[in-house]
Amino acid sequence: MKIVDKILISLASISIFGMVLVFTNQGFSSESHGPRFSSSVEASRVQAGRGSVPSQEENQTGSIVEATQDVEMVVYSKEIDEVIEHYFSTIQENPGQAEEEERLMDSNSEGDEAPETFANTTSPEEQRPAVSIHVVQKGDSLWRIARKYGIPVYTITSMNPSRSSSMIRPGDRLRIPDRAGVEYVVKKGDSLNSISLKHKSELKKIRSYNSIQGDVIHPGQKLFLPGGKPGKQYRFITKRLFIWPIQGRLSSRYGMRIHPVHKKKQFHTGIDISANRGTKIRAAADGIVVFAGNGGSYGKMVVLRHKNGYFTVYAHAHKVLVKKGQYVKQGGHIALVGSTGMATGAHLHFEVKKINKKVDPLSALKMNVKVKVPVS
Question: Which residues of 155-178 are buried (b: 16+ CB within 10 A; e: fewer)?
Fold first, then answer.
């Protein structure tokens, strides 16, 4: 073999060996930084917190940022991801829990009202209820009168509409039926079926109690709806989907930043709001507490589940004021500001997620939603 050929073969062997070393070192380097969690799109590609670092990451504007050795694309959301995954596992085992939570979070649901029970809600006699006259005495109230006759207050106010929005006085005469229900004045466009559905009163009983043959009714006609309830009137208003959980100085935004502890460039999954220790933290929206306790690097932490797949995270608390499974209204106090976990001072770390997708909290706090509220 010629000397030139031997030299070329030697050089090729050295090059191959060098490439193997490079790839091996890169493999070790990718695992030496520990678990890494990226956006929800990339998270599914990371197996149990191990494996190669994603080459790209979404920043706060949705644009793609190149990952390099100088920029650690570490997202400390492992604790939150595990909380949400555990929550959904629980829901799968107990579907009834999800239904109850939906009912609680729907502020316009009739199910929010406590069920009322009365001694005289039905009558076996298929006839129009007897109506007596009650003369108001000193010390009487609609609530006391309703208890005396074993009927709900709304039955009395429907029979006496002029008293529904004013105080009763001694000497006033009130019409009192002998059973629960509502008196309804037929409006143009009404039908017996629509009235029955709206007021939750049996159609056959409406016919029987009011001596109606067939389905013919007339505007202005008064009907007693046995067992019925007053139909709610609603209007739509626009409001913020989320409110600010505390008032304070915005000390760190969502997106890439220099970590205050590690001093390395990392992705910040929420916003930090500086405030005095002990400041009350409010729920950003109506929700269910899915986690309340020690969140590892997040310190004492609360995670709330809201409608439409949203979750909010409140971390580094000094004290947690709620329990897992508790329902809280928007603005309700859930924790106190602190500096527990990986924190350099008293502040609130606030995150918003939609299922497991990260959302910029500053954008979420500007989102509006139309809600249905009862007309008073």
Answer: bbbbbbeebeeeebeeebebebbe
Domain count, the chain: 3
Instruction: Give how far Cα 75 sits from Cα of 35, 58, 59, 72, Å.
Output: 9, 11, 11, 9
Range of the domain at 145: 131-226
Q: How far is CA 54 from CA 76, 82, 260, 359, in A?
A: 15, 20, 23, 19
Helix (H) or strand (E) holding 158: helix 153-159
The per-residue pLDDT for range 21-47, each reduced to its tens digit, is 443 443 333 333 333 333 333 333 323
**pLDDT tens for each residue of 121-171:** 444 445 566 899 999 998 788 888 988 999 988 899 889 987 755 678 899
For residue 293, being part of any structural domain is answered with: yes
Closest to 310 measured CA to CA, from 254, 367, 349, 267: 367
Closest CA to 347 of 268, 260, 251, 275: 275
Query: How far is residue 273 CA from its own chain's centroid?
Result: 22
Domain with residue 268: its CATH number is 2.70.70.10
Q: How many CB atoms lie within 10 A of CB 182?
A: 24
DSSP 70: T
Residue 108 falls within a domain, yes or no?
Answer: no
What's the token pair of residue 78?
């492992």
Q: How confident is the model at residue 362 (pLDDT cuts 50, 70, 90)?
A: very high
Which 3 state secondary structure label does DSSP give 289?
strand
The pLDDT tens digits for 239-280 are: 999 999 999 999 989 987 776 666 777 888 899 999 999 999
From the list 301, 346, 336, 348, the residue with the least C-alpha distance to 80 is 301
- So what's the pLDDT on residue 321? 97
pTM above 0.85, yes or no: no
Rounded CA separation 214/217 (Å)? 9
Cα separation of 351 and 362, whole Å?
10
Mean pLDDT of the chain: 75
Beta strands in the chain (DSSP E): 56-58, 64-66, 131-135, 173-177, 181-185, 222-226, 234-240, 249-252, 255-258, 265-268, 271-274, 280-282, 287-294, 300-305, 310-320, 327-328, 333-337, 347-354, 357-359, 368-374
